[in-house]
Amino acid sequence: MTTDTPPNIEVFQDLTLWLGQHTSNDVRDALAAQAAAPWRHAPEREQQEAHQDEGEYFAFERQKQDDLPKIGLVLWKERNELRVTNLVPITSGQLSIQQYNRALTEFKTLIADPVASHLGLKIVLTKQWETLTDWMSSGTADLLRRFSAMANKSTGSSHPSDRARWFAFIIAAHKEQVQATDRIKQWLIDVEHWHPERAVDLIIEYEYGLELLLQYEQQRY
Length: 221
Prior knowledge:
It is built from 7 helices and 8 strands; from the N terminus they run ββαβαβββαββαααα. The protein has helices spanning about 25-35, 45-50, 95-120, 140-150, 160-175, 180-190, 195-220; strands at about 10, 15-20, 40, 55-60, 70-80, 80-90, 125, 130. The protein has a 6-stranded antiparallel sheet, with helices on both faces. Strands 1-8 form a two-stranded antiparallel ribbon. Helix 1 packs across helix 3, helix 5 (about 160-175) crosses helix 7 and helix 6 packs antiparallel against helix 7. The model has no long low-confidence stretch (mean pLDDT about 90).
């Protein structure tokens, strides 16, 4: 007997390193000392970031290798943690989700993990794969699945019956304060095979619906 596994989508991962009792400069120096090819510490990029915004930024670069372009990675200090806030190609273009996660995981494995182990720091890499119930309750997820399964994918929510099911999902999402617009759009496209343009239309309606319900509640109280 087999059980159905809910379909997952690959999402951009996040990497956070808690400083503990150490200063951010101590951790930065340890990360810089640990960096080895194809990675290097990039202090010149830290100066560029400092000119653009306030705060502490620690920058690294990965040289072009395999199918990955030359990449810049930035750690930003927020309260007592360092978080990867930027990981992009240095020249042009953008990374796919797979390329992004691969580069981030490599940085964690080669550089961040040994430093965290040596200094006794907590490090967390978020999940690579998620499903609807990572962002909303099972009941609200069922409403979204029901809408998607029964809707005419060429017309979106224009049919009255489809619109009623779509509004039921939006109302439930509002009650739970669900946002996750990028995740929902990706799920509609990758799992439910909506055309990207129709998925964008639905997300615009979703965001508008949430804002309308929020404004209504604020005016009532």
